Amino acid sequence: MGRVKVTHDKKVAIKTLLETGLSQRAVAQLSNVSQKCVFGVANKLKQKLPLSNTPGQGPKKASTPTDDRRLLRIMKKDRTQSSQMLASEWTLSNGKKMSAPTVRRRLLSMGYKSYTAKKKPMRKPAQIKQRVIFARDHQYWTTEWNNVIWSDEAHFEVLNRKNGSLVRRLKSENNEPFNFVPRVQGGGGSVSARGCMSGGGGGSLVVYTGRVNGPSYIKIIQDAVPDFIEGAFGQTNTNWVFMQDNAPPHKSKFARRWLKDNNIRLLNWPASSPDLNPIENLWDYFDKELRRLKPMNVRQLQTMIEDLWKSVTCQQCQKLVDSMPRRVKQCVLARGGTFSKY
């Protein structure tokens, strides 16, 4: 930690104590400052100098405001560059030797902190356009989102978690076992699950194995979706729509024919839009809980996922669905591009 600036009032208090005849050590203890600070005040009193710092006192900055603006321009060319790389390029631009810590201090003083880049889907221009159209068409929906049946699948591995873990340690403890999270090829086994929900709560969770094509996708949802529609909406509410993403099995001829034959109305969903699907937040919550629960095999993993699904409350589902107007608004503001909130 750098030196703490001593206020003028504190220096006046130190001066008063010195004038009473106390030793510098005693004054330092009473004032909660270093003896060096008390010595500096005493020296100024002896030389009859003002207690305030004189202009220009202290170390000079290695860079000028012009240099700092140049650093900002360099950083904005590639925001992923390390401080060391920025320092090298900055030095070449002005001829002054700059260190990585200096770069970090200058950027922090200008409000630029380092954040972890989020992994988001890569989208083609046509997909971005679809997202804009969808968001603008639904930007005034409020309670209508409660009539959407949100569905999605997720894949969980026994050992490999999506969310990272932070470890608190000393610098000298970098090789201790608690620094490392076991990671194996294939994740030590995996479980695939598909669920659906609405604002009123969740439906049944279907666990499956193997690759999914059109027929196997219909086999997964053929009982779960109609049962959920009947239980959540009954015969009175016929305004429901079923949401599914644009995965190839969902768009296959077999799946489309089954959905049409069973009068399952679909929400026209834009491609590559997991950030608009509220059920994705449930899977993220499951992954964080599994990191805490630490399953050791596939059977444990499946049991934990099923228990987590059963523990999801109607309030949780409603809260996620209530976020849809905000998600759509963010999508409109981002013009169909990526936004960081969801």
Automatic annotation (TrEMBL):
One GO BP annotation of this record: DNA integration
Pfam families: DDE_3 (PF13358), HTH_Tnp_Tc3_2 (PF01498)
Superkingdom as given in the UniProt entry: Eukaryota
Stretches for region Disordered: 49-68
A GO term for molecular function: DNA binding
Annotated ranges, domain Transposase Tc1-like: 68-139
InterPro entries: Homeodomain-like_sf (IPR009057), RNaseH_sf (IPR036397), Tc1-like_DDE_dom (IPR038717), Transpos_IS630-like (IPR047655), Transposase_Tc1-like (IPR002492)
Residues of the Tc1-like transposase DDE domain: 184-300
NCBIfam families xrefs: transpos_IS630
UniProt-recorded name of the protein: Transposase
